Amino acid sequence: MAAAASTYTEKTDEQKAITEMVRQFADEQIIPNAEHYDREDTFPAPIVEQMKELGLFGVTIPESYGGMGLDLTTYAMIVEELSRGWISISGVINTHFIGSHLLMKFGSEEQKQKYLPRMATGEIRAAFSLSEPELGSDVQAIKTAGRKTESGAWEINGQKMWVTNGLMSSLVFVLVKTDPDAQPRHRSFTCFIAEKEGGVSENTGPYEGLKIPPKIKKLGYKGVESTELVFDGYLCPAENVLGGEEAGLNKGFSQMMDALEVGRVNVAARGVGIAQRALELALRYSQERRTFGKPIAEHQAIQFKLADMATQVEAARLLTLRAARLKDAGERSDLEAGMAKLFASEAGRFCVEESFRIHGGYGYSKEYEIERLYRDAPLLLIGEGTSEIQRMVIGRKLLQRHAKS
Ligand SMILES: Cc1cc2nc3c(=O)[nH]c(=O)nc-3n(C[C@H](O)[C@H](O)[C@H](O)COP(=O)(O)OP(=O)(O)OC[C@H]3O[C@@H](n4cnc5c(N)ncnc54)[C@H](O)[C@@H]3O)c2cc1C
User: Fold this and answer.
1) Domain that holds residue 348
2) Atom of ligand 1 nearest to the CA of 386
């Protein structure tokens, strides 16, 4: 169902075709099945299989490596549509997208050849891992340590937390401390491409020393697993330092920060998607539900809510697409990506709550889709940098761009 607010139409023919295809997929395959996977908290394998067939794991991967070679703007449009269906579905793709971005931008040619073609088809999927039990925002406090062994491989020890796709992924782009004495501190970290067996909790053979404990039980964002990773003597070959040992050692922090910048556009697009869906549900319900002799949509207080929601959706979408377009044009977009993430994730929460209120008591019932959205939306305020951290990023970048001369 289209929203009543004017839909952003500035799309190329290719973007129109692909977003229409993904919207149809969301309407036919995701929305009708989300309630089941959410209730059972099980991995939506049949939906993921169809996503593979649609090529959605390779959207931004160059055609030369088997992907679609599309830009960030088109990717953001696709993520909006998937998230409108269910943000857990976009969660299966989002960490994969970060992993493929890291490889495309910083990987050696051998690493690209080795992983990207299989990533493009979704045969192997990627996760990324910065957070630990004692840190999330303060990335430089990472304790998980890498030590070079006599064999040349790196031995990794430590515990990671909140890894989306932590179990089902076959590659984890993991940020590890490799030089505890480095100054400045951000030069202490290396990004390793940790291979593992997808879907296996206790890895053996070449991947021995990596355990994935049972998934974390969550408020929402069900279906896609969030896990800890326990590295205990896990050996990572030197060639799996992102970019190769010579180019990539102790460069992991800046590589990850670069990936998080595009990741912020990605989360912003998820905010737009969930806000859009909340608006659609509110528009429908408010025209069906009657109080005091008329549909509630005819009460001005409800119309004002709809107006505020539609305005937020539109503004969030524009900010998101602008940040993506700047990035695609090769221009600086750090400030804009932070703004888009902050605004769109807050818009997601706002619209979901307003839609929930419009649903009255039924919003509290599991029979209604808005109940799931109400549990899902807060994730976007946290993942890839909380709203407080976004404000810090925006403030810092603003001052950099307007430094007193
Ligand atoms: C479902 C889920 C999936 C996730 N997936 C991943 C993943 O795939 N990979 C990964 O690496 N991580 C992942 N995360 C972790 C996520 O990135 C962190 O939770 C997030 O960065 C916040 O870190 P924290 O939870 O440690 O909170 P903290 O950093 O402890 O922050 C707690 C509170 O303090 C505020 N705060 C912190 N520092 C400051 C400051 N300097 N000034 C003002 N306020 C501050 C924060 O905004 C927050 O409100 C996921 C989290 C969740 C919930």
Assistant:
1) 255-401
2) 47
Q: How far lies 286's CA from each of 3, 67, 279, 282, in Å?
A: 13, 42, 10, 6
Q: Indicate whether 154 belongs to any domain.
A: yes
Give, for ligand 1, the residue of 160, 219, 386, 392 to mutate: max count of ligand atoms closer than 8 Å to Cβ: 386
Say if CB 166 and CB 172 are below 8 A apart: yes
Q: Which atom of ligand 1 is nearest to the CA of 384?
A: 17
The reply to whether 261 belongs to the active site is: no
Q: How far is CA 82 from CA 11, 78, 89, 301, 371, in A?
A: 17, 6, 7, 31, 18
Please pick, among 225, 369, 371, 384, the residue that the annotation labels catalytic: 384
Query: Quick check: 5 and 312 in contact, CB under 8 A?
Result: no
**CATH code for position 151:** 2.40.110.10
Sort residue 292 into left (φ over 0), alpha (ψ -120 to 50) or beta: left
Q: CA–CA separation, 243 vs 109, rounded Å? A: 8
Answer yes or no: is the C-beta of 173 below 6 A from any ligand 1 atom.
Answer: no
77 and 47 fall within a common domain: yes
**CB-ligand 1 contact for 95 (6 Å cutoff):** yes
Ligand 1 contact, 165 CB (< 6 A):
no
pLDDT in tens, the chain (405 residues): 555 666 556 799 999 999 999 999 999 999 999 999 999 999 999 999 999 999 999 999 999 999 999 999 999 999 999 999 999 999 999 999 999 999 999 999 999 999 999 999 999 999 999 999 999 999 999 999 999 999 999 999 999 999 999 999 999 999 999 999 999 999 999 999 999 999 999 999 999 999 999 999 999 999 999 999 999 999 999 999 999 999 999 999 999 999 999 999 999 999 999 999 999 999 999 999 999 999 999 999 999 999 999 999 999 999 999 999 999 999 989 999 999 999 999 999 999 999 999 999 999 999 999 999 999 999 999 999 999 999 999 999 999 999 998
Question: 131 CB less than 6 Å from ligand 1?
Answer: yes
The answer to whether residues 104 and 130 belong to one domain is no
Report if pTM > 0.85: yes
Distance 218 CA to ligand 1 centre (A): 15
Distance 385 CA to ligand 1 centre (A): 6
Among residues 79, 100, 121, the one where a domain terminates is: 121
